[in-house]
Amino acid sequence: MLAVVWLSSGLTVTRAALAWVAAETLRAFLLLLQSSHGVALVRPKLGLLADSIRFGIKVWVGSFARFLNFRIDQILMGLLASEAALGIYAVAVNASEVLLYLPAATATALLPVAARAEPGQQGQHTLQAFRSAALVTTGAVVVAASLGPLLLPVVFGTAFRPSVEPFLWLLPGALGFAATAVFSNALVASTSPGLSSLGPLVSLVVGVALDFVLIPQFGATGAAAAASTAFLAGGSVAVSAYARRSPFAWSALLLPRRGDLEVLRALARPLRAGP
Q1: 28 vs 1, 23, 123, 188, CA distance in Å?
Q2: What's phi and psi for 127, nearest 5 deg?
Q3: Can you say how many angstroms the Cα of residue 44 is from the centroid of all Cα atoms in its chain?
Q4: Whole-number Å distance between alpha carbons of 17 and 26
Q5: What is the Cα–Cα distance from 212 to 230, expressed in whole angstroms?
Q6: What pTM, to 2 d.p., does this model score?
Q7: 15: which of 81, 122, 261, 262 lies 20 to 30 Å off by Cα?
Q8: How many whole angstroms separate alpha carbon 222 and alpha carbon 200?
């Protein structure tokens, strides 16, 4: 939609925002349509709605904090630094966010699997999902660190060459995000919605505090360092919260095992099968 608007009448902030709203509306409609297959529509049950709200509001706190984590550093950049620094940082952020898609998808796929699993198997599924996401994310970080400095000036122009340094500083945060996403969703599946919000909340608090310290002195690079540190801190807290809920051997967190990539193969099956 952005491409159509750009080629037909030109992009403005308002048109880009309307395109985003239209795309999200379409996505919501398609999700509702897909969810209704094989499920009859019935009257809302007030008791179920109340239970859902009580459970969901605790998860929403973490979801809202995670959303702010992605945006508040850019808002603060606009207040604490120049518009040019904000533009440089925005390019670095949007390029590095590509690395977060796979961990987010893995965490989404884990939620129903862990929720249906026997209590003794939930931890196994969670650790396997994290090792899979961490392995692929680490490989993606290495590739991004190698190619990013070459491609960013080519794709966005030489004026954005300063985006390379904050881009590199943002890369380690992808591993922290992977931990937060996987273990927060695992806590939701374990009926611990309050604990699931701890990781994102810690990321938000750490990130905002470091933004005020680092942005005035280091600009976009300071914001990137703050974001990576925040994600790593939130990931550590999410792992610790899950370990309290479902204790596991710390060696199982990082030591690869056979079948670790099964989660990723499961994600790819719908793509291979087609519509």
Answers
A1: 16, 9, 31, 22
A2: -65, -40
A3: 32
A4: 14
A5: 13
A6: 0.83
A7: 81
A8: 20
